[in-house]
Amino acid sequence: MNATRQFRAAVIIGYMLSITWLRRNLMSLVWLFATPFSLLFIITVTTGGRSFALGVVGSLLLVLSTVGTGIAGDATWYRLETKLQDFFVASPVNQIGYLLGIAFAGLFFASPALVVLLPLLVYIGLPLISLPVVLLSLAGVWLFSSAIGYLVSTFTSNLRNGWQSGLLLSVLVGIIPPVFYPAEILPHNILLVAYAIPTTHAALLIRDAMGTAPNLPYWSPLTGWLLIAVSLAIALAVTSRVARWRQP
Question: What share of the chain is helix, strand, coil (3-state, %, to 5)?
């Protein structure tokens, strides 16, 4: 299959694993909304609304990183319980096409949250002309998180461990980095460590698009884009070479 057909197959896989399920069980959306919007509520209330904008940025990034890292559990389920991965291994769909398919499933699950949060971001100060830049940075976080979530799933031999790994990854990628709090409060040495995580740069790029980016050492929008691209390229390359497409 050429790249166009792989992409088409990925969209179909994503639709099959998300929209068809949501049409029968809307309660599945609850888990996705619970944590990001709870954190947004707590941050807004405890700061008297002063950190509402940071809360919206953090919620956006947490939603997309969570549906990505959650693949660690989802893909483990498809491989161990339903044997769905074996079906695609025997089909013309390659590993990247399958990864993109289950990543699309997560994105489709996240779409209601995005419909709420993106207009909020525009309302609180994001210029519409900068929206494509924000969407591109969010896409980088989504794909990076999906790649590492899938990679972990291929080495997971227990379904419970798959879900637990996804939760741990979501904390490491979507909560600990400076997305819900300002990066400028971090000590210099910890800030340099935070630069290794793409969500840090996505948050700073969104703040830059809104005109609120801080002056940080060794960081600029160009640096942010470069490090997101490098992180994504490394994640996809490692996944392509290391992930177990055909199980031993």
Answer: 75, 0, 25
